[in-house]
Amino acid sequence: MKVFISGNIAPVGLKELEENNISVTQWKENRQITPEELIEACKDQDALISVGPNKITTEFLKACSHLKVIALHSVGYDNVDVPAAKALNIPIGNTPGVLSAATADTAFLLMLAVSRKAFYSHKKIIKGEWKNYEPSPELGIEVNGKTLGIFGLGKIGLEMAKKCIGAYNMSVIYHNRSRNEEAEKEIGARYVSFEELLAQSDVLSIHTALTPETKDKFTLDVFKQMKPNSIFINTARGGIHNEKDLIKALEEKIIWGAGLDVTNPEPMDKDNPLLLMENVAVLPHIGSATEETRAAMAQIIVKNILAGLKGEKLPFEV
Ligand code: DGY
User: 2-98+290-309 belongs to which homologous superfamily?
Assistant: First the structure.
């Protein structure tokens, strides 16, 4: 059996594939594979491990309908035309659960980095601008005891909420399509309308999937409903906020700051104005990039691949 991997997975995954006599071909270039190259690469393969934002479109699926399984190296599957895959009987696997803690760590890190202008201050040292002790440099704000708003209280949102309660005794409010009563009981989170979430959050952290409903959800009009001293955090998908509107909201001090691990497009252009702003911290989509999480993801991927190749139900199917 043959598998094409459109990027890198943790060594433990490669080892397990080898132990199962699966021959692996990997995309090794330091750029995203193009749709045409992906079709070509999958021509004589039995399965695909899709790493990164490859678009698994109807066109790709029709051209590669011989694939027995596609295993995503992600929990998110907004890049996949799932109905088309179902129609063609190609099971799609993802990696839920194992990356919640690491992704929530990234949201927490961004919240603190923004609130204390950490990335901006770091850049000042690099530029040789640390000349003297400054008691009042560009001052940060504290999050202790403030209100955390979660947009999308699933596994990752819950982890973020727990960290913020434990570390800073923050009150948690959330908005979902439907209530998460288990989480309400577990951490005392309060369900609010979307409008209330905007009006009351000191830190608003996005943990929802990118869907037609959440695409471009955070526009200038929405930012205008947030507190002027609020911090916007997005570790979910860049398509959920409108980047031009976010830049405007920050420039016009409609909101106080923003921390992003996801941008639109990705990669972000190095001349993007967000990168020069004091109250902004941007990371290159490293939300779940830890040794432990990548290893756990690779092991789930192999389970999905092995099941798919045998024609069995995937243990983690979207
Ligand atoms: C995920 O798992 O969805 C991460 O964002 C990596 O793409």
Answer: NAD(P)-binding Rossmann-like Domain (3.40.50.720)
